[in-house]
Design brief:
By secondary structure, the protein is an alpha/beta fold. The chain has one domain: Rossmann fold, CATH 3.40.50. Helix content is 48%, strand content 19%. The protein is built from 7 helices and 7 strands, in the order βαβαββαββαααβα. The strands form 2 sheets. Strands 2-5-1-6-7 form a 5-stranded parallel beta sheet, with helices on both faces. Strand 3 and strand 4 form a beta hairpin. The longest helix is centred in the C-terminal third of the chain and has 23 residues. The two termini are 20 Å apart. It binds 2'-deoxyadenosine-5'-diphosphate. 2'-deoxyadenosine-5'-diphosphate binds next to helix 1 and helix 7.
């Protein structure tokens, strides 16, 4: 017998700088059910789940098998926010909700510049945001009913987005208690 998960699996994805970690932290604080925030990029570094590190691009080539093995028990247990700039790697069965954060490219450029990214990495990410790469990826990887696109430009967006996800969690919870 499989036990029912204690909470949903919520994927928060989007181009770097769109606000995933900021949203995930606030959501973990405000959620009506306990949610563990996993910053997948940090996990990859901490647990050496990568093959190489590219100095020039300042980025890791992830060992996808190792990462999936690490995340499988966590996702199966439920009650987790997966915060990462890509989502197509995660099996469809893991996801209850996929939030894709979006940001105006001028604002995104400023955020990435502040982060000290090399120019070509800023350009690449900015272009990806304009081309809706992560949104397309989410839409082609998961059922359309569970993919939500949200703007993340200011604190008002942040607060209303998190409230919207909290409302969704309350509905998820009520559904299971019915
Ligand atoms: P990500 O995890 O997607 O790389 P982040 O959460 O680290 O992005 O945010 C990058 C920066 O932008 C950080 O200084 C917080 C700011 N930011 C992001 N979304 C925001 C929002 N909706 N309102 C105000 N600031 C935001």
């Amino acid at each position: 017998m499989t036990s029912s998960p204690k909470g949903p699996v919520i994927i928060i994805t989007g181009t770097p700088g769109t606000g995933k970690t900021t949203h995930a932290q606030l959501l973990a604080d405000e959620s009506p059910v306990p949610l563990k925030h996993i910053n997948v990029g940090d996990l990859v570094k901490e647990k050496n789940l990568y093959e190489t590190y590219d100095e020039e691009w300042q980025s890791y080539t992830v060992d996808e098998d190792k990462l999936l093995d690490e995340l499988e028990p966590i996702a199966s247990a439920g009650g987790v926010i997966l915060d990462w700039h890509t989502c197509e790697l995660f099996p469809e069965r893991w996801a209850d909700l996929v939030v894709v954060l979006r940001c105006n490219h001028t604002k995104l450029w400023e955020r990435l510049e502040k982060r000290g990214y090399p120019l070509k990495k800023i350009q690449e990410n900015n272009e990806a945001e304009i081309m809706e790469v992560v949104l397309d990826e989410a839409r082609s990887s998961y059922a359309s009913e569970i993919v939500v696109e949200l703007q993340s430009e200011g604190t008002e967006d942040l607060e209303s987005n998190v409230q919207r996800i909290v409302d969704w969690i309350n509905a998820w919870k009520a559904d299971r208690e019915a």
